[in-house]
């Protein structure tokens, strides 16, 4: 890890590792997801086979599919020893895996938008020390507006600057001139799109949210949370 990478992570709260995994490493997971969706009669050969899931709100679909499609020992398949060493280095401590799951969303969920999203943190966001790092792994290519997780870069430092997360959440909810308002607080929205095998590492104090998959392909990602041991 370069000093520039570490400084960027400390300032923005995330780091993108391009090509951290090879296509050969992620291909079996992609094939497993597609086989499971076909077995469950949800998706096969480019067709949605489940009317009940298709009718669900977009983010309920993600939760439902993530619960239905599992992969044995996912963490060891998507996090290499080098990536784990980097995670511990970024956290300045030893972290332990706490939770892993697949993140799947079907195509054509609707028009892509920043309005009405569920911005949140999974743990207490007021800690001064990094409480954990969450890895997001692209199992297949994810294009912009293709359902990738969004994160609010810099939001882990809001409490340090005496700014209210409540005010920022209000900006995120209202949507009007959102990016201008966020820019005034040195915040920016990061879309975790990219190529299969890319990995994003995120300070778990960052606000983040699922997004709409408006593309014509399934969004296939995995996530692993690492917490201080």
Secondary structure layout:
Elements: H1 3-12, E1 14-17, H2 23-39, E2 43-44, E3 47-48, H3 51-54, H4 58-68, H5 74-78, H6 81-91, E4 95-105, E5 132-138, E6 150-153, H7 165-174, H8 178-184, E7 188-191, E8 199-203, E9 208-209, E10 219-228
Antiparallel strand pairs: 1-8, 2-3, 4-10, 5-8, 5-10, 6-7, 6-9
Q: Percentage of helical residues?
A: 25-40%
Regarding quaternary structure, what we see is single chain
Number of discrete helical segments:
8
Beta content comes to 15-25%
Low-pLDDT segments: none
**End-to-end distance, in Å?**
22 Å
Describe the fold and architecture.
It is a single chain. The protein is of the alpha+beta class. Helices cover 33% and strands 22% of the residues. It is built from eight helices and ten strands. The protein has a five-stranded antiparallel β-sheet with strand order 1-8-5-10-4. A three-stranded antiparallel β-sheet has the order 7-6-9. A hairpin with a 2-residue loop joins strand 2 and strand 3. The protein is globular and about 45 Å long. The model has no long low-confidence stretch (mean pLDDT 90).
């Amino acid at each position: 890890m370069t000093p520039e990478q570490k400084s960027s992570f400390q300032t923005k709260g995330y780091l993108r590792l391009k090509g951290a995994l090879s296509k050969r490493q992620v291909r079996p997971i992609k094939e497993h997801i597609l086989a499971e969706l076909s077995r469950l009669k949800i998706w096969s050969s480019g067709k949605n086979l489940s009317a009940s899931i298709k009718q669900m709100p977009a983010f309920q679909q993600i939760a439902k599919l993530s619960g239905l499609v599992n992969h044995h020992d996912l963490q060891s398949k998507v996090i290499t020893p080098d990536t784990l060493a980097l995670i511990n280095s970024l956290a300045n401590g030893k972290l332990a895996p706490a939770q892993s799951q697949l993140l799947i969303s079907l195509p054509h969920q609707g028009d892509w938008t920043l309005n009405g999203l569920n911005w949140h943190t999974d743990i207490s966001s007021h800690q001064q020390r990094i409480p954990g790092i969450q890895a997001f792994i692209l199992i297949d290519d994810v294009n912009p507006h293709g359902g990738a997780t969004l994160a609010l870069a810099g939001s882990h430092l809001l409490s340090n600057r005496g700014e209210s997360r409540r005010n920022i959440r209000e900006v995120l909810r209202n949507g009007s001139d959102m990016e201008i308002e966020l820019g005034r607080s040195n915040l920016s929205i990061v879309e975790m799109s990219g190529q299969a095998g890319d990995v994003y590492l995120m300070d778990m104090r960052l606000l983040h949210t699922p997004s709409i998959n408006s593309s014509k392909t399934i969004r296939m990602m995995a996530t692993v949370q690492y917490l201080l041991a």
